[in-house]
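Q: Structure for this?
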Amino acid sequence: MAQLFAGMRAHQVFGADTEVGKTIFSTGYALAGTLCSADASVRGPRTLAPRADAERVAYLKPVSTGPPHEMDAGHLQQYAPWVHSSTMLQFAEPVSPHLASVQKAGTLPHDAHDAQIVSGIGAWLLQQARASVPAAAIIETAGGVNSPAPSGSSQADLLRPLRLPVVLVGSSKLGGISTTRSALESLRMRGYDVEAVLMFPSQRYQNDAYLQSLLAEEYAIPVFALGGPNGDGWGAPPVRAVCDEEDHARMRDYYIGLVHGREDGSGTSMLDVVRHLRAAHAKRLARLSTMASKTREVCWWPFTQHGRYTDEDVMVIDSAYGDFFAVHNNTPQTSLLAPALDGSASWWTQVLGHGHARLGAAAAYAAGRYGHVLFPGATNEPALALSETLLGKRPLSFSAPGHGWASRVFFSDDGSTAMEVALKMAIQSSVRRYAEGEGEDREWQVLGLQGSYHGDTIGVMDACEPSVYSDHVAWYKGRGYWLAPPTLRVKHGKVHVIVRPNRDWAHWERDTARDEIHLATFDSMQEAYDVTRRMQHGELYENYRAMLHTTLTRLVRDEGRRFGALVLEPLVMGAGGMLFVDPLFQRCLVDVVREQAALFGGKHVSRTPSQWQGLPVIYDEIFTGLFRIGIPSAADVLGTSPDIACYAKILSGGLVPLSATLASSSIFDTFAHSDEKTRALLHGHSYTAHPVGCSVALETFAILDEMHMRGDWAKHQEDWGSTTIWSFWNKQFVQRLSAYAHVESVMALGTVLKIALVDQDAGAPSVSAQRRRARKR
Amino acid sequence: MAQLFAGMRAHQVFGADTEVGKTIFSTGYALAGTLCSADASVRGPRTLAPRADAERVAYLKPVSTGPPHEMDAGHLQQYAPWVHSSTMLQFAEPVSPHLASVQKAGTLPHDAHDAQIVSGIGAWLLQQARASVPAAAIIETAGGVNSPAPSGSSQADLLRPLRLPVVLVGSSKLGGISTTRSALESLRMRGYDVEAVLMFPSQRYQNDAYLQSLLAEEYAIPVFALGGPNGDGWGAPPVRAVCDEEDHARMRDYYIGLVHGREDGSGTSMLDVVRHLRAAHAKRLARLSTMASKTREVCWWPFTQHGRYTDEDVMVIDSAYGDFFAVHNNTPQTSLLAPALDGSASWWTQVLGHGHARLGAAAAYAAGRYGHVLFPGATNEPALALSETLLGKRPLSFSAPGHGWASRVFFSDDGSTAMEVALKMAIQSSVRRYAEGEGEDREWQVLGLQGSYHGDTIGVMDACEPSVYSDHVAWYKGRGYWLAPPTLRVKHGKVHVIVRPNRDWAHWERDTARDEIHLATFDSMQEAYDVTRRMQHGELYENYRAMLHTTLTRLVRDEGRRFGALVLEPLVMGAGGMLFVDPLFQRCLVDVVREQAALFGGKHVSRTPSQWQGLPVIYDEIFTGLFRIGIPSAADVLGTSPDIACYAKILSGGLVPLSATLASSSIFDTFAHSDEKTRALLHGHSYTAHPVGCSVALETFAILDEMHMRGDWAKHQEDWGSTTIWSFWNKQFVQRLSAYAHVESVMALGTVLKIALVDQDAGAPSVSAQRRRARKR
């Protein structure tokens, strides 16, 4: 992962093209480092002899092609023998490494080589940093920024996990402006910081002058036009002399010029580059070390009691890649950037990992093609294509979330707004079916489950029972009835279904010692989640049905409540504490609500998936949807589709906010059957269906589809013995965990692993996790 | 702007580098077009003679450098004289056009040259499309994708307004994989569709094979490796013969091979390219012509009564650039893409124009560096830097919105969520100051203005008076009192301040004929908006104060209302119908609320900008903020800062959703003074402070700062005689407009121009604008 050392600056040298002088500049930079005193203020004598008070310089060529005597490291050793140079992989053929490695190995090596190279470089860096300080390290890449590594990955992609600051060697050739700028764009879009561009001066094409002004204005990156005496004047190295000795002498003179600059002091020299990069390094260190305190001064974090944080508690995220953050810490000796697992997938938004090149490219493309464009009464390709994808109207190797029941997609910005939209759709549908023309006397309520959470805007808060989230919100007013849900948990390898007793469950047999009702036990998760089989065998479904019928009748007939929607987080209630709800219960609840149309004011007619009955059923799949729990939609497990469903988080690949509310045609028709503008759904946000988000979402679906077709998670499915219910976490591991004494219970679904510890003080007010983290440090 | 013709496909030929064969491939492609029958199914004889039933092919080199006899158009004319070729600009020096043009003109030409070149190409395209169909047009660029145009702009930026589909000529040289991939990335991030990559085959480096597999997988772009007989085998053109005649013969043979392929039919040929591009063109036309109906089938638009739309009403936005959409229409003869002014700036989100390259680059960089990363208890550079910028802690040439009063930034996703956060902050601050420990009996209300709008989530809807927006939302419950606001309007060149009479204004003199109270008249906007001067001179401020004092006393003492916040859209209420509120009235309201602390339950103490008094004051600047009305914040005009303020829309440069709620230290302290987790602000969205949005916001500030320093809008300010109150719209034009009989009144501030027409049926239910649009068509 990314590394950073206080006493050593490390740079990655990329080339805008091949043969632009990477090795010449690397050598010159190495020489300048060994010549430059600590304060770098005084120019020394015009020699190449290292200064005693200069920094230690190390050079690495991870992958080299061409015969050994032409090795870049060899050139460097010739002119700067005191620089610690090495080469990791050497291929004799002077072609791209991916071909050289094929020619050597007979076949393209496995992707694992990328990780090996990266960890090799990481180890080398650490070794250099420990050897002596102050120091400088340079890593010279092969070819251009996107030239293939041995595995075939682009150099820029291969080295991205390290994210070292970059020295880009620009091209002074005809066309070099274009190749240099495009190379810079390729590096920037992969999240690299380019700290300097070095290039030979070019009298004729003036690439340096053009790039100097462009890069200063748009990126604040300095361009150094560096040369030396070449017989012909001042510029690129001299042509090779016939005699080796003569050649060596010319190159020595050249390097003296390159490093020290012109004798009259005009122009820039490699010593200036060293000074600039030293300053950049110092600035970066200074910024990183103050970010925690500055953030504590100016930012207002969500869900955070700021008084509990000191500077040391703040996670300063310098960058992120894959499943890890690169976090600043102050450990001397080792890297100042430590990898930290993004354990909550950044609030469950990540699915393909941080810094995914294809998602960034998709965002950039849409930004270039559209920016954002107005949506009402209009359309754009990413928004339309994403709608078609969500509804199952485009080919996918898995079932689309809206397949078979949804006919419309409404876009908004986050889970909370998606649910506000869903509630407006649902309740207004009930109002228009059951109470059109009535005076607005009774309150419309939702039917839901205890422990549910749908977001933090006040409308959706009102759809949840009172909790710590709502205690300090004056405008909160719970409008609904929330049933106690039976939940699943694994203990000692068995799956148990239990529920906390309350009035609704009064007639059920209760374990008074544990204050819970034990409903069922299964040998495997697969059995517990096989809703169809459980409906056919066993009495629990009928018992659930009877209980729900009694309860709903009481609520409506006796208590006079009027319901407008059934709102569920299917299978898992995330924010409520990762509650795994018994799917049979949720299925039964949906069935009963639809059967009891008469109770809510309607007539029972036979239902089609596009026609809501009883109450509109909302699935809040913001947390559970799109493979978070291993399946595209929980509807697949429940065996019944909703009338409205919400998606966010993973939807936009973990990059930018975007959410979608899907609705069936009968919901849409409630709003669209009229010609009156005010009967439409008068809801919308400025960035509705923004092309960048939709584009990233489409690319996410494309990549998930490729993974699914490749069978990337088939071995996990095999492990769990099921294609619907499975987990990334090893089954034996999960079962072993469940047997520990201090483990209250365990559950694993898809990417989610819940380990409930024995803890008296759980929930949002609990700080036990924070305490544990503090102790660990 | 972007062009597209049913009967003619037009392509832009870009090169991955110079000297990669753009002219050879352009010539070959032109020849193939004139050889390829309409159905393209049968290969003809191996000649270059055009077929009678083939398409007409036209070729344009917009900018050519080098001596006339080496002109690319000249080469094409030699081998394909029946192709209609031309060159727009010719520079004799074979260097980059920006240098050639300097050498010719002595100085770098003005930016306007870009627009001239683009409109010249547009005119040429239209001419070709009218000449005959079926046809093909090719435009060959100079140098690589980012090589400078005569003005110095990159070729890819210069031609972006046209956004023609691209044929990219890849490089088969060593390093060509890198330059080709980077060139493709540069094109993609500017929103270009690359439909094919053409390149010479390369046995040694196998660039074609690598790129074929990479581009197929990641972009679904085909790579055609095309060659011909070159004496040495099959590949790049033969070396130039000494004798012209011999050379010509060799090249003729070469083109026959390039166009028809190998005699044995193996490999690909330029005829395959023609077939592929024809198919891509047909696919694009088919998709564009069905997007309207498909969108009407699957999308649920915000604020739209779908029944009012036919396919023809749907704006199919193919792309956007600057202030214009490129919209699909079915007009034969002319382009199928017509420019349409984005008159509402895509719901007021745009400020720098669509497809702005620097904003896209900033988004791509952050996507590459982070993706999205968790924010609570953490930090990342873009989020911190943006917070510092919003609070005025980083250098800016204009006053930052939070400068001088705000101490904290809370991020969320859109204006509505920003206002939910603001309301929670404000009301909870009042609860804790005025009612801590009390039983929750009375309802907390907001004080606001009639016509205000703060978003569509139910919490912020409750902060607005009942309206068409809330009529059909069962859970809406207005909780507040909304004063009738005096508003400004320009009629016959004068600025009038009027208010609709109601109980609060009962003692004011009323124009019964117009049912309004006339409060003041000014000769200029500058006078009307000079709050300080108006406070010192004239009685209106004191009269406002007396009225407000009476009204507030009645509301609190007599009606027993309890207020928790004053909520204002300063200066302009956007969604309420672009109401320009008298700034003196808003100032007076803020002053009175702060003076009357005792009325709301507190003590009056002398107030500092960071200490709220009376009620927390919220400025909803989502619409008005960040230069929409010409100034960074309306606080500058009102002369008093809020305690909480919200920003969105322009904040993220019109690219992705992002919003910020700024708060003063006394608001923050209300939540942070405790150690209890549950007393924190328990609100947050998954993508809080997402780096992509924050990065784009920072780049937006940087560009606005550059524009401000350059004095980009100084001439407008001069026109209006003021640096605070001014408009992009010409003053004389606005005053002339105000004199028209069917114009009820006019107002112009910053980028906003409001023309109120004489119309009985205005507001959200009105469809008069839509009717007018329909009539126009």
